[in-house]
């Protein structure tokens, strides 16, 4: 029997695709373009099972669109700056580039072996000079537009990695990378002003609905966190300017009995009186050890200190004390709140602990929070609230009080976002240098475009060890330069950029690789983008996927791109797990991709990944069987050897029944792949293989043209998931290579009609019904249909059927009991 040799097929077809440039797009406008993009890999070690799954998914889409006649771009590159390379270089006393580019070569080889339909001619690495030159160029443009700025503030600090982290990189109070508890440090750092785009990032999500998973949109919406409310000004005794608070409930202002400011913000330090200073300073130290999550938790025992300062409630003239407490965050709203203990649980817990007054101003359910200790919220009847008394509607209360505040000049309605500006400085070496020179006289001078890239100095090994300052600061020859403006002595910025900056624009670069006039050619981007399908892990739901949307909007405002959203469709593949758990070293349940491929071949491994379930679901490797995938592929391959007709044969002469099955498969599989149901498409392909095998062995036989037609489509459908065996089948059929260059068929509507015949139903020799049934009807289905017929029921008259004689599809005879 014929048997396909998966390893030999792999080498043969890799060479063919490379030589044929099968997967390089024509890019000449002769076909409609489609851009299919996988999130580019980080070069940590070799490819693993997770990569294998994600890229197998992207390849289904890319190969499908190619066969459908589109000019498909499916590029690959590496996100090659980052900490692991630096840590490896410190350990091995080498340069991070060595580790990085070695790993890239290993991964590139594995990608090729894995049979992905990638365009290698557009390959990029974010750590290449001709890439990071343009990252710096973009930084300069952002700076010109006021979207890159420096400020001094408390930032998230990872004590292990010795670098700052963006808010998005702090997960449950820990460093997203190494899991260390994140602390706070006061540093002068660079930020991107993503908050300028908060509203647009929110609004444009309507363009992504349907194309992106709902939960990703929900996560972004929460992260952006839009709140409507008001700014209210409280005059402070002995201070010229009032304190401004942000509140979502200005209608509760009559119940504001004290104020609270963030201990670690500038206000508290300024307001505190000498009498309270020592206690306050101790409290600030304590605060810094708390994570943001702990601080916001309602479970947390409330702590705080009085500042000795007092303010005036603008609506009733009451004198209220000002406290500092860690539950108020320095960088949300204004870093100060009006405390309304009756209607905010945190304020109530605080008031009860420190004996501050509680005044109920909304009767929600007849209870008094001062007595119950439970704050009430929502609609109710206002009381103790001057002009609001008697109103029962929250919206009306908010509107009324906001109007009054505005009229008196004590406040204004406003919108607040949870989203913070993006902190992009990192005190690490292996990243894109920030192209700024600091001069005592001229301030921040951005390096001129012609001087880019600002190259990394040549540091290695122990020179990179974390010291709490950037390793670049140690490269004094590199740091000390002439000020480009005044020629005086100046210093380069010694921080590098967050690697999420690199990955915020790589997909533009793919459109015009090697372009030297800018980061990309706007014409190429106009041709290829937006991306038709983006594939990658859900762990990027807020980091990368928010940042790249922000970059695209800035580029749009610069006139370089014309769309609001760069990625129209997003697929988040599930994870590959083993025995119900994520694979990990400590559990010892890791599965090695290379070993799986050695044993079963690429095709079987990929088929297993796709067939396991819906793309979004996790795959438990303990519950799937690459061995049976391989068996199926061998079955499909053997079919090709049983095709006895020649390529010139006319399918119209083929067996009707098999043609019907084939064309039904074409229609269904097309629709299934289009709607992302890849696993079901594979199941349909398996059914087609079975039907064809039957036709060969016990039907019209291998010489029938319908068999050739069926096997050709089997090869095309399989090429999306098992490309090597698909090529082998195609070749065995005597067709010119490659199946990847073939055209996906369209189903012939006339062949889709179900063939039917008339089935007569007899009872005791008499015809009781004539029913239209499919030619391939089963006895079970025929009996069910017959029993549902009114004439049959009348004739049976309540008697049960004791015997069935079936001569299908033409006749069904029923023998009733007594
Ligand atoms: C008075 C008030 C009364 C409040 C009431 C709520 C209920 P969101 O919805 O998340 O925007 N707040 C304002 N700034 C804060 C900060 N920097 N740290 C901690 N809390 C802060 O929350 C807005 C509400 O959170 C604001 O409305 C304020 O408390 C508090 F019955 O003001 B509210
Ligand atoms: Zn200068």
UniProtKB/TrEMBL annotation:
* Annotated Gene Ontology cellular component terms: cytosol
**Bias-annotated ranges (Basic and acidic residues):** 290-302
The record's subcellular location field reads: Cytoplasm
Domain named Leucyl-tRNA synthetase editing is located at 221-404
* EC number(s) per entry: 6.1.1.4
Q: Which reaction does it catalyse?
A: tRNA(Leu) + L-leucine + ATP = L-leucyl-tRNA(Leu) + AMP + diphosphate
Xref: PANTHER family: LEUCINE--TRNA LIGASE, MITOCHONDRIAL (PTHR43740:SF2), LEUCYL-TRNA SYNTHETASE (PTHR43740)
* Protein name in the entry: Leucine--tRNA ligase
